[in-house]
Amino acid sequence: MTVVAMGMPAVRSGRPSMDGRPDTPYLVDRFGRTARDLRVSITEKCSLRCTYCMPEEGLPPIPADELLTTAEIVRLVVLAVREMGIHEVRFTGGEPLMRHDLEQIIAGCRAELPETPMAMTTNGIGLEHRARKLVAAGLNRINVSLDTVDREGFARLTRRDRLPSVFAGIRAARQAGLTPIKVNAVLMRENLAGAADLLQWCIQEGCELRFIEEMPLDADHEWARANMITAAELLEVLGTRFTLTEAGREDPSAPAERWQVDGGPATVGIIASVTRSFCGDCDRTRLTADGRIRSCLFSDQEYDVRAALRSEATDGDIATLWRGAMWNKWAGHGIAEAGFVPPERTMGAIGG
User: Fold this and answer.
1) Global pTM?
2) Of the residues 14, 173, 303, 343, which has the fewest C-beta atoms closer than 10 A?
3) What per-residue confidence (pLDDT) applies to 220?
4) pLDDT in tens, 28-79
5) Alpha helices (H) in the chain, listed in sequence order
6) Eight-class DSSP state of 88
7) Which residues pair with 289 in a beta bridge?
8) Stretch 130-153: mean pLDDT
9) What's residue 210's pLDDT?
10) Sequence spans of domains, the chain
11) Over 80: is that where the pLDDT of 192 sits?
12) Between the CA of residue 246 and those of 137, 257, 265, 275, what are the distances in Å?
């Protein structure tokens, strides 16, 4: 076993155990789940410094030769879809717009996978200049991270005064056809009072808002369950302005529970990742920017697919490694357990 520097998790060497695994090409695990949603982080860099995600100085840079290349990302995405049953691909970061070859990555995947849904999670900064190019490359839709529509509050949470740029990016994305646009907001004590304002803004702009309970993935390790805003508390706050009617989930594996707002058609979603864990229905597999397969957001067990790629491994070799990594996926994040230990990587280093 080798250890990655800069506080990174241990990387498993060799092949993961396949004991008891059924003979199937799909990314199944020991608990009956099948991964069909691939999250691909393409950079650790970001134009913001959100307090729940990154340290103020940013993440330690990944050396250029340790990042997956455009061709390597395309090869892995195509392999995952064609050989392992992945149904949807989402590009994340850091901030994916910080990578100058983003359009080339998407276009390369789209050329090989004309029917596969491809999405991106972004903070929206700079999107106004690239939205049409991303659509032309083959991107289908986006999620935008936006926690508040109060400019001063935004600057405090992100350590950057860039809210107008986010607004411009969202509007450019809508004009380019990247709809429906989903807005993701992390629930914090600092932005709870503005939650209703954010929902009103999203309804006016035609965006689908989803609030997410804050998870222990911050770089400063200041998360405490006693301080977090729960889904129940948020519903109480939103209920002072809107009438919310429970609408259920879009499908069993979707993490967001939905509520109709004032009778619809607008809805608001809440991803209660801590208080109402959905680990039992998780269908995700993750690829980090430096080429590690990660089966769970909270597990520090990673497998080095970049090394396999660069040692002339066959697609079959890589698929076997990936299937084994997912076969050994944890049952759940264990946040509620007494011995819970947050992962070494922060959210910005893992990818959303």
Assistant:
1) 0.89
2) 14
3) 60
4) 999 999 999 999 999 999 999 988 888 888 878 899 999 999 999 999 999 9
5) 70-84, 102-112, 131-137, 151-158, 163-176, 195-205, 231-238, 305-310, 315-327, 347-350
6) E
7) none
8) 97
9) 94
10) 2-7+28-180+278-335+342-350
11) yes
12) 37, 8, 13, 17
Q: What is the DSSP letter of 91?
A: E
Concatenating the DSSP letter of every residue in 202-220 gives HHHHTPEEEEEE--S--TT
Quote the pLDDT of residue 335.
Answer: 63
Report how far residue 98's alpha carbon sits from residue 101's, in angstroms, rounded to the nearest whole number: 9
Find, among 94, 96, 144, 57, the residue nearest to 350 by Cα. Answer: 94
- Return the CATH architecture of domain 2-7+28-180+278-335+342-350: Alpha-Beta Barrel (3.20)
Query: What is the CA angle 301-293-327, rounded to 5?
Result: 70
C-alpha–C-alpha distance, residues 81 and 346, integer Å: 27
Tokens of 227: 């301080």
As a whole number of Å, the CA-based R_g of the chain is 20
Of 239, 276, 230, nearest to 261 by C-alpha is 239
| Distance between CA atoms of residues 152 and 86, nearest Å | 41
